[in-house]
Design brief:
This protein is mostly beta strands. Helix content is 12%, strand content 50%.
Length: 113
C-alpha cells in the first residue's frame, strides 16, 4: 500500500495487521510537518501536528488529544524500535481525511484543499 500526503508520493512504509493498515508514527508525523517523541519508561508517544498533541500508549486503541479521548480502529504496537499506528489514527486524532483506493492511501489536510 502506498502512502501519499496531499497527493504527493512518500516513502512511508506500511504494514497490514488483521486488515488494518499501519504506518510508523515518527515518519508519518514528520511527513505531515509534525513531531513524535517516545517515553520508554511509560511506553507512550506524544505526537504533535500543528496545535494538536496526541498521547498514545503502546497496545491501546485510543489516544488523548488535547484532553479529549479519541478512539481508532486498532491497537498501537512497537516493533523494530518503531511505533506503528493505524493510518486512520491521523484522521481521528488530527482531522485529516483519508482518500483510500485498493493500493493507496492519500492523507489530506482538509484545510489545504
Amino acid at each position: 500500500m502506498d502512502i501519499q500526503i496531499q497527493g504527493r508520493p512518500t516513502n512511508i512504509e506500511t504494514r497490514n495487521e488483521n486488515g488494518i493498515t499501519y504506518v510508523p508514527v515518527q515518519e508519518t508525523a514528520q511527513a505531515l510537518g509534525g513531531t513524535a517523541s517516545w517515553d520508554n519508561m511509560e511506553k507512550l508517544a506524544t505526537i504533535t501536528v500543528g496545535q494538536w498533541a496526541a498521547v498514545v500508549r503502546m497496545a491501546e486503541s485510543e489516544a488523548d488529544v488535547n484532553g479529549t479521548r479519541v478512539v481508532f480502529n486498532g491497537p498501537v504496537f512497537v516493533e523494530e524500535n518503531r511505533m506503528w499506528v493505524p493510518v486512520r489514527f491521523f484522521e481521528k486524532a488530527f482531522g485529516y481525511t483519508m482518500d483510500v483506493t485498493a493500493d493507496r492511501v492519500n492523507i489530506v489536510n482538509p484545510l489545504a484543499r
